[in-house]
Amino acid sequence: MLIFDQIMSVMTIKKGYPENLLPYDGEVNYIDQFLDPDRALKLYDALYRDIPWERDQFLIYGKRIIMNRKVAWYGDQRFTYTYSGRSRIALAWNENLIRIKRNIEADIKESFNSCLLNLYPEGSDGMGWHSDDEKELKPSATIASLSLGGERKFSFKHRLSKETISLNLANGSLLLMKGEIQQHWLHQLPKTKKQLASRINLTFRTFADDALS
Asked: Tens of pLDDT along 14-35?
């Protein structure tokens, strides 16, 4: 079901980027209401229904762990994305996703060729400390992260100083990670015992040309 036509007219971005949330070694910009919250929830519903979600898996000390979190991977071409012992080949964009991508690109003046989608059903579903520095990614390329659904805490930790910075990612918000952030900072979506609404996260990325399957 195509729903993005109903959302485009209410997509807003503040004039200019907000200030950098990091004190050094990279840049993070947070746009609180990139999408109107009500329309963002309609988009959440469409993606929840139409995306062919698969439960994520990790290989830890030779043992495969099946996660409650679900994922999907899309791209301009059949990019191969490998992490935690599992490789995925990008699916062709569906109409809602390609329109979201094009409008984000137009507003922030950046371009992307792929998107990793995560579905976090509960507050107890999250991601530990990591950086998005896989060899397939174009070095220092901007990553744009769109949040839909339940609000969640998100944290950054510097690799050397261990300084930690946290914020809450609201429904309809857009987070931009830029520059050398992946080399110097880790980030996480902490798990919590609180009862929280489920959340879909879209991370638009730029893969190198040699990441083709």
From this structure: 445 678 999 999 999 999 999 9
